[in-house]
Amino acid sequence: MPVDGGEPLDGRRRAAVLRGGNTVRICVDGKPVGAELPGGLGLVSTAWSPDGARFVVGLREISGTRCAVAENGVERAQHDDIDAIRFAPDGRLVYAARDEGKWALVTEKGKGERFDAVLRTAITSRGPRVACLATRDGAVWLSVQD
């Protein structure tokens, strides 16, 4: 049973997140990719890389205790919570993640500063910078990462 899917902007490829029995399977162009994932997962978000080569999903355990980020069917990371999964124009994966009660902007280079909440993420259309608007100790912060 398809749960959700996505299509890159150029429309050349299709993807679906399939749930059946006790497993979740990611399919790209009608073919399963990666390993079967545990079935107690719900979909958080999906994103295609700009070149259409990478499909990323954020999955949350139905119990709400853990989240996973999977790329082309292979789990890359686990966090307490995830949000705003997207790709920069240069193909870098960017998302917000919560671990141990604090949120951070995560890129392929690693995690940024830790905050109480990430309100919004932004990616420059040119260049390597990503940013997030976040709160910590009642103050609003703008955090920029290369």
Question: Helix and strand succession?
Answer: EEEEEEEEEEEEEEE
Count of alpha/pi helices: 0
- Number of strand elements: 15
Form type: flat
User: How far apart are the termini?
Assistant: 40 Å
The average pLDDT is: 85
Fraction of residues in helix = under 10%
Low-confidence stretches: 1-5
Which structural class matches the secondary elements?
mainly beta
For the largest beta-sheet, the strand count, sense and barrel status come to:
4 strands, antiparallel
Question: What would you note in describing this structure?
Answer:
- By secondary structure, the chain is an all-beta fold.
- The protein has one domain (2-114).
- It is 0% helix and 64% strand.
- A hairpin with a 2-residue loop joins strand 11 and strand 12 (110-111).
- It is flat.
- The relative contact order is 0.13.
- Mean pLDDT is 85; it is low at 1-5.
